[in-house]
Amino acid sequence: MNFLESLKGAIQNLKGNKVRSFLTMLGIIIGISSVITMSAIGKGGQQNITGDLKEGGYGKFTISIDKDDEEFRWKYLLEPEIVDSLKETNIFKNVSANISTRVFLELGKRREIVQLVATTSDYEKIDKTEYIFGREFLPFEYEKGEKILVIDNLTAKDLFGSADKAIGNKMSFAVGRKNSPITYKIVGVFKNPLEELIKVMGGRRIPRFMRTPLNTYDKVYNLSKGGYNSIIVESKNPENLAADMKNANTILEDITGVKGLYQVETMSNAAASFDNILSTLNLFITFVAGISLFVGGIGVMNIMLVSVIERTKEIGIRKAIGATNKDILIQFLMESVILTGIGGVVGVLIGVTLALIIGYFVNIPPVFSIFSISLALGVSTFIGVIFGVTPAKKASQLNPIDALRAE
Fold first, then answer.
1. What would the DSSP string read from start to end of 327-386?
2. 133-145 b/e (C-beta count within 10 Å ≥ 16 → b)
3. Which one, of 309, 314, 342, lies nearest residue 328 by Cα?
4. What's residue 224's pLDDT?
5. How far apart are CA 140 and CA 132, in angstroms?
6. Which residues contact 201 (CB under 8 A, 6 or more apart)?
7. Claim: this prediction has a pTM higher than 0.70
């Protein structure tokens, strides 16, 4: 028998038992579709979550003081003069003070801790937000230190019913438990930077974000007591990030005359770390889904072994009219590979469809990888070869006389 005759014989045998062939493929279909769905949704969620973080941190770095040394901690503060010195070099695109602190927000009779960022016009250029309603701070509001506030859309919806209703309302918060709350007017609502993460991960509590002008914060809480948390810098050319970080450190060391005082870190580190965590999680989920492929392969082997027993007499007749052990081995192996191969193709189609449907409902565009799909099809075919060898070998080694005597 040549290859085509063996292939034709394998297809005819499978078509003769359509229901059983379909049930045999079911394990492979479930395994492949699970892998494709998990992989596409996982990569889509990963891209959504880390995309904004990477974009936000690209070409930017922060400067802070090594707080381990108590002497340096209080002797050298990050003050407005430091920011001005960096700006005057004209090396960097934007330089801004960075104050990020937790404040106690008044919510009726209770207080809740939220994250407040005191911003400048340069800060808004470096750490851009997407405004949904209202507006960003105006130049004179930065200058005068108006008591105004912008909040994230999830907080606005939670506290006021919808993001648009928050505009013009007032909120009161205090820095530290001992300070009295001060009331601020909401002028804008921006997109919560963790909204995509919350969609994927869920969570009982919504992280709240607020921004107010730096001068407003300074008037109320007197920044001269503790300086800025850090300074945030944006490079003119992101490709020169490493050189700019080194330059900034050298400039500040020249000003203070102290070596090793400043910590200069790229802002993309957090995104890279988070990306690694999500990649590991995605790989683990895909591995778990892949276990069903192994179970499907065992199912194929079982059914093929049953098929060998049922077709013992047929094998005997074929051997009696000239079929060799190799012909029998190839035909049974082909049947196994065809089963898993078709199961793999159907599994890919179902997996793609499921990923599109789930992605639509959870608002995460799935990301399909040609490599993942090709790998899934390759693995399904490989499973057919691995789990089909034992039944095919058993069929090929049957003694023709014993096979003809079989009932």
1. HHHHHHHHHHHHHHHHHHHHHHHHHHHHHHHHHHHHT------HHHHHHHHHHHHHHHHH
2. bbebbeeebbeeb
3. 314
4. 61
5. 22
6. none
7. no
